[in-house]
Amino acid sequence: MHNIRKITNDLVYVGASDRRLALFENVYPIPRGVSYNSYVLLDEQTVLLDCADLAVMPQFMDNVAAALAGRKLNYIVVNHLEPDHAATIEEAVLRYPEAKIVTNAKAANMIRQFFSFDLDSRLMTVGEADTLATGRHELHFVNAPMVHWPEVMVTYDAIDRILFSADAFGTFGALNGNIFADEVDFDRDWLDDARRYYINIVGKYGVQVQGLLKKAAALQIDTICPLHGPIWRKDIGYFIAKYDTWSRYEPEQEGVVIVYGSVYGHTAAAAERLATLLAERGVRQIAVYDASQTDVSILVSEAFRFSHIVIAASTYNAGIFTPIENLLHDLKAHSFQNRHVALIENGTWAAQSGKQMRSMIEEMKDMTVLGDTFTIKSAMKPAQENDLAELADAMLGSME
Length: 400
Fold this sequence. Notes:
- By secondary structure, this protein is an alpha/beta fold.
- 33% of the residues lie in helices and 24% in strands.
- The chain has helices at 57-68, 83-86, 89-95, 105-114, 186-189, 191-202, 206-217, 236-247, 266-280, 296-305, 322-333, 353-362, 385-397; strands at residues 5-8, 11-13, 16-18, 23-24, 28-29, 34-36, 39-42, 46-49, 75-77, 100-103, 123-125, 131-133, 138-143, 153-157, 162-164, 223-225, 253-261, 286-290, 306-316, 319-320, 340-346, 368-369, 374-376.
- The termini are far apart.
- The mean pLDDT is 97.
């Protein structure tokens, strides 16, 4: 049974959602599932823009057939070769043997690595600013390397001003019939997943995203069709501005995220007390997380969201309590930078975590560590309340 929806009179959504997948890329939890977006352009010549994951292949192939309604498929445009969008290319070739595969040279080499079918006889290699006329439409190809693989390109329909943006402007979450961002409450239901998707999938490559945004600024864009999540046809500038902020490594909002790693609860108690002291000083945007109970992809995303971060960790095996150490490694791997940081350490006989956390943070770019590390010896004592209050004052003073 097919399940398609028109985007314009001659552009059809043929993607499908997977609500069974627990981990995206086998690492990021996706309790709301994920969509694999694909599009069919019905012009004098027909075009399939990207394919889908094997998990949704039956639905995807039914959708393509329904959109074509008996017509031949002339072109398959491959913007991105990651298997969640390209694993069904071989099946598409078997069903539509006359279709030309349109992609760049790097992607063509990856197709040869993933598959064994005859690519050369049906390959149409395109480069930066090359075009493909399909009748009324004219497709322009723009390279977008490292957003987030090196072969990525995006496709721009100059007639209807549609950007097929590959993984850019995507988000976690299955689509629920409403495929457009203006049909849902995006801020309430999608923004957190959009941020987590960007930061964890693309966040390391802010420079490259800025490059793509500069190219996009030269285009008139009325619609953005990503490979995951809702399609944008209204308020496009809102989402582009989010990408601009994230890719510049600027905080999305002023506030504090407190992340603690606590073995027996004493480090957690100090972190919770600091949250209250900040609240008493008028800080309204505060989020507190237990690193042992919260997936690190959420912690990384929240660190990017806020202007200030407090990291509290017990000493463990003469080092940093493991969940916090993992978080710091992940932050560095995603080029985390340009934040104010406060540190809390705990150690019953030898507090070592603070010194090591500071060292890891100082390896990151443009990081400001506020004051001295607040040290607990087993449990925070009432006499330390003033010192913790001073740390809260320092954080408040560093806010704009």
